[in-house]
Amino acid sequence: MQCPGCRKPVPEGAKFCGFCGAALSPAVPHPTVRGEAPPVSGPEAGPGAVFRVAGPEEAAPSEAVGEAGRRGFPWVLVWALAGAGLAFLVYWFGVGRTGRGIPWPQRPNPAMDQFSWSRAYGGPGEDGATAIASTPDGGYIVAGWTESFGVGKKDVWVLKLDGRGNVEWQKTYGGPDWDAAEAIAPTSDGGYVVMGKTGASDVWVLKLGGHGGVQWQKTYKLPDIGEEGDPRWPDAFSPASDGGYVVAGWTESLGIRSDSFWVVKLDGQGSVQWLKTYGPNEAHAIAPTSDGGYVVAGRILIGAEVEGIWLLKLDGRGNVEWQKAYGGPDDDGAKAIAPTPDGGYVVAGWTESFGVGERDVWVLKLDGRGNVEWQKAYGGPDWDEAEAIAPTSDGGYVVAGMTRSFGAGDYDVWVLKLDNLGNVHWQRTYGGPGEDEAHAIAPTSDGGYVVAGETESFGAGKRDAWVLKLDGQGNVQGCPSGLVRDSTASVAPTTVSPRNSSAVVRTISASVRASSATVETTSVLPTPVCRGE
């Protein structure tokens, strides 16, 4: 016959199963109850008899154990004891020791990990990255320039990366002359808009689809600024709240000092809505404000041969609401500006008037009217400069630039994390024996930061585009020894007071033309610099 519990064969007449230890006894007839298995019949039991697993009331424990010891090992008892032990452990570690349940360990969600890595991108020539932005899919969009690929002397280069720095697509855009990108931003339709320079003097804006295809492209010539042949520098770009774009730059005069600071507002299709110049100065950064206007940062001549930081607050039509200059006895300048959650602004650049070295990073926190709330210089004995700044989720700021005072080589990438009052939370350099620079930084969704720039120390060519993904403490895992270093910048409060300035504002017109860039797909494989985690 068979044991009805484990279905193993057992000798006829046995009272216990030698495999599972179940007690066997003739069953009395009973009705089938809903949810209960019907009796199991067996011909060996005789006519009308059935066998079933006996309950505790049908077999004495002493008899069951004794017979099981003679017939087989008591597995039912073993499993019961094991289950009781497991239940005790769950209670002890989950509730008994702490008074509250502790969840079982779970595999971390990769989307919430703080990845860190570093990759160089380039060919045999010189290549660089000037801008980077996070994308909604958790990756990054990078813009810059390349002399290794494309059809001209230098072409715009755009790379779409995933969250680990792997290339999803990469393309060049250009003609026979010099072309380079200065800025890039994702758009609400899943595409991107790129701003840069083409040829000797034209502003260039390209609207791309989600995979880099050109939707429209236009050039903007500013004919009546400076003199014929004067180079135009479109340094700053930002999406506007109305779906358009705003570009700022300056024209460098080749004759007597008369640099011209200009701002152009475009609609969503690249048509000019207004274009104005603001005196003999330079524009290097622009950002939209919550009231629909813009704040522009650059440089202004504040003495016979001394330049300082210049800020203009514009309304939505480009009219000046206020303007102020900030500077000391020597040259100072702004390279980046960002609105802050309290309605003010944070400005980053450099100073030769304050600090401890030849040139120091300079950061100023301003209120909504341009008044200084705090100001500090950060540097060492040599040449240090900020290129980018961004507010962080903890109310502080992250600054990126370059340093010759600290690090491993000529210039190194330098990143400083500041609190809301400008005190240094951490500061680190990244680089090798060559010249390495940062041009852009952005916070990432996992609490870290992504930096874009150029490297001569790593990569495939003379100079490569370089992207570093940092964790929240500025660390990158798996780097060569000495690539990441702590720095020890001196932090010094500065004492500049803003001065009122009086820009001469002119409305001018630009010649707008559709361009026809040659678009090519490149096939660069990233060079791992730090393996990351």
Please, could you describe this protein's structure?
Helix content is 6%, strand content 45%. The chain is built from two helices and 38 strands. The protein has helices at residues 61-71, 75-96; strands at 24-26, 40-41, 50-53, 117-121, 127-134, 140-146, 155-161, 167-174, 179-186, 192-198, 202-208, 214-221, 232-239, 245-251, 260-266, 272-278, 282-288, 294-301, 307-314, 320-326, 332-339, 345-351, 360-366, 372-379, 384-391, 397-403, 412-418, 424-430, 436-443, 449-455, 464-470, 484-486, 490-493, 499-500, 505-507, 511-514, 518-521, 527-530. The protein has a five-stranded antiparallel β-sheet, with no helix packed on it. Residues 26-72 and 88-112 have low confidence and may be disordered.
Shape: globular
**Overall mean pLDDT score?**
82
Q: What would you report as the Rg, rounded to the nearest angstrom? A: 36 Å
Give the number of helices: 2
Helix content: under 10%
Total beta strands: 38
Any low-confidence stretches, pLDDT <50, length ≥5?
26-72, 88-112
Enumerate the strands of the largest sheet in spatial order, edge to edge or round the barrel. Answer: 29-30-31-4-38
Largest sheet: 5 strands, antiparallel
- Cα distance, first to last residue? 61 Å
- Secondary-structure-derived class: mainly beta
Strand content: 35-45%
